[in-house]
Amino acid sequence: MSSHVDRAGAASKPEGSPGLRSGRRALGDIQARYGALIALAVLLVFNVAVTPHFLSIQTLTVNLTQICTIVIVGIGMTFVIGTGGIDLSVGSLMAIAGAFAPIFFTGTLLPGAPVWVDVACGVVFPMLLVGVLGLFNGWLVSSFRIQPIIATLILFIAGRGIAQVWTNGNTQVFDVPEFQALALGRVAGIPFQVWIMLALVAIAAWVLHKTAFGRQVLAVGGNEPAARLSGIPVRRVKCIVYAISGLCSGLAGLIVIAMNAASDAGQVGRGMELDAIAAVAVGGTLLSGGRATVIGTLIGATTIQLVRYTLLANGVPDAAALIAKAAIIVLAVWLQRQRRA
Amino acid sequence: MTSMRHISGSSIGIFLALVALMLLGSLRYDGFLTEFNILSVLRYNSMFALIGLGMCFVIMTGGIDLSVGSVAALASVVSAMLSPWGLMAGLLGGVAAGLAAGVLSGFIIVRLKIVPFIATLAVMLAASGAALLLAHNQSVAVSYDTAFTELGQGNLLESLEPDWVANGTNWFTSALDIVFAFPTPAWIALAANLVGIVVLNFRGFGRHVLAVGGGEEAARLMGLPAGRVIFIVYVISGGLAGLAGVILAAQFGAGQPTEGVGWELFAIASVVVGGTLLTGGRGTVVGTLAGVLVLGLIFTILNFENGMGWISLSAYWQSVVRGAILFVVVVLQSRLDAPETT
Fold first, then answer.
1. Cα–Cα 20 to 30 A to A315, which of A176, A306, A329, B168?
2. Is residue A211 less than 8 Å (CB to CB) from chain B?
3. Residue B341 binned pLDDT confidence (cut-offs 50, 70, 90)
């Protein structure tokens, strides 16, 4: 992909006076760092003023549930993009996890086992499976040096096929409240999936910004040869980020089927790769790698969702909201570019 | 652009695969080499041949165009709405919608300097939104009063076919018969690809495309108008996606705002399987065409195999097989390229 556009842009930028430049940079810095946050604040104020019944627990819950799976997948995507990669297979991996989970917790595989064993297996084994598939992506990227977009295109195409072959294209309907609690259970009035999302965001932000592994991720994305020379295990780091992305996708897939009480391999996670990438980009993570923010991804997903909600709540058709979403993505990434130039 | 050996080296595999698939098909299944089967494969895959061609040029500059599927959907809606005013109105309207989307992509990439992946992702969303708005969230029937549907369902030379060919019974007349029965969309795709081959290999623009993909900075320093070249390839890709959308509407009798999902990734897979480097700087139009046909034939062969009754593989297997083919191709390519790229 062309990071070359950036370099060319930076090279042709005229030199200004140092004071002016640093002033401009500071302003740009604020735009880029807090741009999404400011947009979010504006949206909130607008909604409080205009949209009826905006300040209600109902509205909060609806919006948070909408972004939950996008943010969870976006966390893994943030790590992958932090290394300069991309993961197109997330939606298909969600479908695989969603397709395989029901055989465990509907009790067909382990007849007679207590429910909690079934549910635990239904969560753990599908996630392990897609974690391994994530490792497969990482293996292709790191050992064969296949470009991430192509390497993950393989499972994007084949993955949903595998899920559909497994279920023969049928929707699996189930009624297992213990499993569905994953999405529908509430703690302090907030759906359990939202707590999972917030916990994962906190953990991932800590890992990315405070641990050696996080610094290695950004070092690989910032300058791979330099990272290799300084002794960072580049291959291992890449394998791990794709595995993380796989695990996050698996969890998101389980949440989706828990929410629907049904698993349709043709629908679970469809288009998720683009939603997640959009959230990551709007949040301020550089698509060329080297700079990443998990909190930004949360803010990015929230902003995109809130724009859609604002438009829908005020009578704008969903199709027009798509166009607005496109404009936001371009605007957000353009503003961030202004800072780097 | 380093040498011709490269180009033939990495795309020879796809031609071998194509020949192998056709041999397998013709030896194993009775109806495989029939006129009906050949023509329906060509008729359906002509849309992908157009999109693959545009994608091939985009990828040769080191970019990517995710918008082609929803641009085709938008164009199918536009052309269906214009079809009551005749074939030309529908055709030009659809292509114009595609060109407009391409201009938008090119503008965002070249002027706003946003990476192609994000820029075309945004255009994809916008085109999809525009298609749904125009069509009021449902498919738009085309007019059957005009010649519009000929673009998708017609056979360009059918009326010219002499009687001795139509009535002939030997292999020569049946081969000629196929030419006269060749579907109009396949002619369009064939013509577009021939133009693509000429432009890539014999025109300055083709060399510019490869030079920009090989190293934009270097191309710029050599005085090539890199920005303009990049802009133009996205306009081309948009226009071809528009053309594919027109064929879609004409072939299925309706403009379909929700069609085209995943086409972009299918096109990218065809380009890669065909031997074009995703990093840009090297590519082949013929390879891409072969890639489209190989990935398209998988579906046909699966159908025939099920028809034999030995096995019963659901249609879902086709994506598994396509993924496996992509896997084999890219792993082989990485092995072949390894000494040079490291």
1. A329
2. no
3. very low
**pLDDT above 90 as % of chain A:** 28
Q: Is B69 in contact with B124 (CB distance < 8 Å)?
A: yes
The secondary element (H helix, E strand) that includes residue A244 is: helix A234-260
Look at A195-199, A217-221, A311-315 and tell me which has the smallest mean pLDDT: A311-315
Distance CA B242, CA B234 (A): 12
For B4-20+35-295, CATH number? 1.10.3470
Q: How many angstroms separate the CA of residue B312 from the nearest CA in chain A?
A: 11
- Spell out the residues 6+ positions from residue A8 whose beta carbon is closer than 8 angstroms to its own: B113, B216, B217, B220, B226
Percent of chain B at pLDDT exceeding 70: 93
Q: In terms of Cα–Cα distance, which of A247, A25, A260, A21 is closest to A137? A: A247
Q: Containing H/E element for B7?
A: helix B4-28
Domain ranges of chain A: 57-340
Q: Is A338 an interface residue toward B (CB < 8 Å)? A: no
Closest CA to B193 of B60, B43, B48, B322: B48
Are the C-beta atoms of residues B156 and B42 closer than 8 Å to each other?
no
Whole-number pLDDT of residue A23:
52
ipTM over 0.85: no
Query: What is the spatial distance between Cα B105 and Cα B239, in angstroms, rounded to a whole number?
Result: 12
Q: Please state the separation of Cα A262 from the chain's center in Å.
A: 22
Query: Are the beta carbons of A34 and A299 closer than 8 angstroms?
Result: no
Mean pLDDT for all residues in chain B: 83
Q: Is A190 helix (H, G, I), strand (E, B) or coil?
A: strand
Cα A81–Cα A87–Cα A90 angle in degrees, nearest 5: 130
Residue A315 φ/ψ region, left for φ over 0, alpha for ψ in the -120 to 50 degree band, beta for the rest: left
The C-alpha atoms of residue B230 and residue B159 are separated, in whole angstroms, by 41
The answer on pLDDT for B116 being more than 70 is: yes
- For chain A, say whether B128 makes contact (Cβ under 8 Å): yes
B residues 213..242 contacting A (CB < 8 A):
215-217, 220, 226
Helix residue spans in A52-191 (DSSP H): 57-82, 90-100, 102-105, 115-143, 148-167, 177-184
Chain B residues with CB under 8 Å of A154 CB are 323, 326-327, 330
Higher pLDDT: B311 or B88? It is B88
pLDDT at A51: 75
Is residue B246 within 8 Å of B76, Cβ to Cβ? yes
Q: Rounded to whole angstroms, how far apart are CA atoms A125 and A135?
A: 15
Q: Please answer whether residues B271 and B288 qualify as being in contact, where contact means their C-beta atoms are separated by less than 8 angstroms.
A: yes
User: B324 touching A, CB under 8 A?
Assistant: yes
Quick check: B31 and B215 in contact, CB under 8 A? no
Q: Do A158 and B63 touch (CB under 8 A)?
A: no
Give the pLDDT band (50/70/90) at residue A11.
very low
- Closest Cα of chain B to A36: distance in Å? 17
User: From CA A208, how far away is CA A214, in angstroms rounded?
Assistant: 4
C-alpha of A89 from chain center: 12
Q: Give residue limits of the domains in chain B.
A: 4-20+35-295
| Fold exhibited by the domain A57-340 | ABC transporter involved in vitamin B12 uptake, BtuC (1.10.3470)
Q: Above 60 in pLDDT, residue A110?
A: yes
